[in-house]
Amino acid sequence: MVTAVHGALPDVRAVAETVTDPELPMLTLADLGVLRDVGVTHTGTVVVSITPTYSGCPAMDAMRADLRQALRAAGYEDVEVRTVLEPAWTTDWISAAGRAKLAKAGISPPHLAPTRGPGPVQLDLGTTVRVIRCPQCGSTRTEEQSRFSSTACKSLWRCRSCLEPFEHIKEI
Amino acid sequence: MGHTDHQDDFADAYGAIAADNDEHRWAFGSGFEDPLAGVDTSVPSGVDGTDLATYCLMLGDDALILSHRLQEWVSWAPELEDEVAIANIALDLLGQARLLLARAGKADGSNRGEDAYAYLRAAPELRNVNLVELDNGDFAHALARLLVFSTYRLALLDHLRTSRDPVLAAIAAKGVKEVTYHRDYAARWMLRLGDGTEESHSRAMDGLAAVWPYVDELFAAHEVELRLATAGIGVDPSSLRAEFDSVVAEVLTAATLTRPADGRASAGGGRSGEHTEALTILLTELQGLARALPDATW
Q1: How many residue pairs bridge chain A and chain B with CB atoms within 8 Å of each other?
Q2: pLDDT tens for residues B121-140?
Q3: For a Cys staple, B124 with which of A119, A131, B201, B273, CB 3.0–4.6 Å?
Q4: Domain B46-260+272-291 superfamily per CATH
Q5: Domains in chain B: boundaries
Q6: What's chain B's average pLDDT?
């Protein structure tokens, strides 16, 4: 897909890249790796492709609306937002800038997503000790409270040094 | 009352939301966008579209109905963390259901949306296994069911990643990541309950005993599943039993629980539309508003 030059309109990818995530507003959709492609067809339709973080992500409709609104405001009237399911989103796609923004907001960024060997998915009964650094005080004396938190993509942790709770983006 | 800056802030905030006249900013009601918007949903060669749709309904209905049962737990779970965990698991399953029901509408040529399947089918038209429709029972019962279901579904989705239908393969690949967390959650709870107090151990055993008569149905292949397995689109569920048994054995051993005796609740099954009364009651709640006010949007 080719990005056409649209007279005096701002670069279409640059506009799409300003749109932020509805639930993690410190991150853009580009930082999060949700924005997969931006292009313009030969008939002038802007086509933006996004992928859901989780199947049930309730923010997908809001993301589509926000993308359309931002592009309309920049002068692009004809916008189509497409869903891409494959390959499935992974936290490895969160950019370095995105990770820095998360940490600054007190959310622990993800480590590398686990790689799978051959055979069935391994059961994790909680015996693996994981080192997650507290985003507030930097201590590694932390413990997982719950693998589910305020949104599907986060787990809930507590720091045993500063005693503050914090969230960690769980690796998928 | 005179205008204050404060009131103007509220007026502007409302205006900012309403001004673009884009109702999709609101994640309520019906009228959601097609979750498969922009996805190529053509039916692969060598497979009957009606079969493919039926198969998507089987997997989609499992997710839809268990999601509803898990949603019933919200505000009843033992701890806040579990409220959140169960709600998140229900949301993942609802997302999987939306994709699968939408895929069914593209495969059978009816072009029905997800809502038409979720809200406008009667119990005999649903294809979910009986396991997911049973009443919740106590927390141990719910966790025993979640362990059984997520162990089965994870094995199933993992095999579906290589389906010749690229849409099913993509839905499965995403679902594997989610259900891995669901299974771990259920397994860890079974560990706490089984290896906990005498009371929690006995409740975990009761929960397992209550769901176990519904296990065999998961692995009994329906003719549609067999045809799609042959076509490289679906999975023959009987091929998943060994992995299921091995994972469940690992959890039960660690939890000091014993596996109940095998035995099937009934000869029929949800894959053919044969359900228990519990599903009819569940659908009354799930579908009540949509049926009372057809085409309502809000």
Answers
A1: 135
A2: 999 999 999 999 999 999 99
A3: B273
A4: Ferritin, core subunit, four-helix bundle (1.20.1260.10)
A5: 46-260+272-291
A6: 90
Cβ <8 Å between B173 and A86 = yes
Q: Which mean pLDDT values do the consecutive 10-residue runs of chain A (172 residues) have?
A: 57 95 93 95 94 87 91 93 93 96 94 88 85 93 90 91 95 90
Domain range annotation of chain A: 12-83, 107-169
Long-range contacts of A156-160 (CB under 8 A, 24+ apart): A156/B81, A156/B84, A157/A108, A157/A132, A159/A134
Q: Give the pLDDT of residue B231.
A: 96
Complex ipTM value: 0.89
Partnered with residue A154 across adjacent β-strands are: A169
Token couple for A129: 């000790």
Nearest by Cα to A168 from A116, A112, A104, A103: A103
Judged by CB atoms closer than 8 Å, whether chains meet at B91 and A62 is answered as no
Which of B174, B178, B182, B257 best probes binding to A when mutated, by most A CB atoms within 10 angstroms?
B174
Best mutation target, B84, B89, B114, B235, to test chain A (most A CBs within 10 A): B84
Of A59, A62, A125, the CB nearest to B254: A125
